[in-house]
Recover the amino acids of this structure.
């Protein structure tokens, strides 16, 4: 009883705040269904690592170092980039590139939607972050959690915990963040533009060659992206080859879900109160929102400019789907199109831009590593 009383006395208000943050993340996961496979383990992990003398993280007691299991997992799965890369195999197996292959020009909008990354890099630098931290923060704009983890860890950012939490939180908030931004920069007439579905057929050979060619091209343009784009495209090759269906299903479901759970609870090792609660964390939160907003703006504006030079108009809202939050962003755009016109089906076009954004975000991560790694 006396030992319990002594432990209670060691509780600091910062730890209580982290318990509340953990509780909020768990609430959002369960009640609001926001990325539950990730936010729930992150929230629970945040509570675990902020208990006084927590055995889940490494502690030094009476000069003796006691290694915590979450730190062991971090060293084994994140410090060496293993978890993000394995997760990319599962993500690649989930993606169908057919909408993009039937309309390759959609790649333009996927690339344009990465504008917020480089704009945020400049803003973070002006706010006083060193170049490696600024680059790690900027990649939040990729709206791609595994890429954020990979880049932040590779660049040894001091704020990896905050970056990962912010990246995944905003990914979950895409249905809330994007619609007002899209409406602000488009007219009702533009939002009502109808787009006919493509009737082109994509051969199995094309689907098989696509991930191989993309890996080679990306590797030549941004060599540092080879592991990122390679694991993503390997997962897609498993999906499209036609002879590994059981492995494809395993990668999409069992593998992706299992790694995501371990990833979430492991990230919590960087959410200890003394590291997480700071002015810099609030700045990262603001910069993350800034990156998402300007990614959306970049994609929509390029689509509007594209319409100035073509007779067959495209709905500029699909440009917003160029962020890598797959498939949420495509669904948001499709829903907005139906709200304006019940016969305006934008899902296939938005999905094409969305998967191109997945590729572009990984290449952008590779370019960041090439420039600052």
């Amino acid at each position: 009883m006396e030992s319990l009383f002594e432990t209670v006395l060691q509780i600091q208000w910062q730890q209580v705040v982290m318990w509340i943050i953990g509780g909020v993340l768990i609430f959002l996961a369960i009640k609001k269904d926001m990325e539950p496979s990730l936010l729930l383990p992150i929230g629970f992990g945040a509570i675990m690592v902020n208990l006084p003398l927590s055995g889940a993280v490494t502690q030094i007691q009476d000069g003796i170092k006691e290694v915590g299991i979450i730190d062991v997992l971090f060293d084994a799965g994140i410090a060496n980039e293993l978890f993000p890369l394995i997760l990319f195999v599962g993500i690649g197996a989930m993606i169908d590139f057919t909408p993009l292959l039937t309309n390759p020009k959609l790649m333009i909008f996927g690339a344009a939607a990465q504008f917020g990354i480089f704009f945020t890099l400049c803003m973070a630098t002006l706010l006083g972050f060193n170049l490696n931290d600024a680059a790690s923060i900027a990649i939040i704009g990729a709206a791609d959690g595994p890429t954020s983890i990979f880049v932040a860890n590779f660049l040894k950012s001091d704020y990896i915990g905050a970056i990962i939490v912010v990246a995944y939180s905003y990914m979950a908030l895409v249905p809330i963040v994007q619609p007002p931004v899209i409406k602000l920069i488009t007219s009702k007439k533009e939002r009502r533009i109808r787009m006919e579905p493509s009737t082109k057929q994509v051969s199995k050979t094309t689907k098989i060659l696509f991930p191989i060619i993309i890996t080679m091209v990306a590797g030549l343009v941004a060599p540092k992206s080879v592991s990122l784009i390679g694991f993503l495209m390997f997962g897609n090759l498993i999906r499209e080859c036609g002879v590994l269906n059981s492995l494809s299903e395993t990668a999409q479901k069992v593998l992706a879900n299992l790694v995501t759970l371990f990833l979430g609870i492991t990230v919590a090792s960087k959410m200890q109160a003394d590291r997480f609660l700071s002015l810099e964390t609030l700045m990262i939160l603001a910069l993350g929102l800034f990156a998402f907003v300007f990614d959306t703006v970049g994609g929509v504006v390029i689509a509007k400019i594209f319409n100035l030079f073509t007779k067959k108009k495209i709905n500029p809202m699909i440009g917003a789907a160029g962020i890598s939050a797959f498939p949420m962003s495509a669904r948001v755009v499709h829903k907005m199109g139906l709200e304006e016109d019940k016969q305006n089906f934008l899902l296939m076009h938005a999905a094409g831009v969305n998967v191109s954004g997945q590729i572009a975000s990984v290449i952008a991560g590779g370019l960041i590593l090439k420039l600052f790694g």
Remarks:
- The radius of gyration is 21 Å.
- The mean pLDDT is 85.
- Strands lie at 59-61, 64-66.
- The chain has 20 helices and two strands.
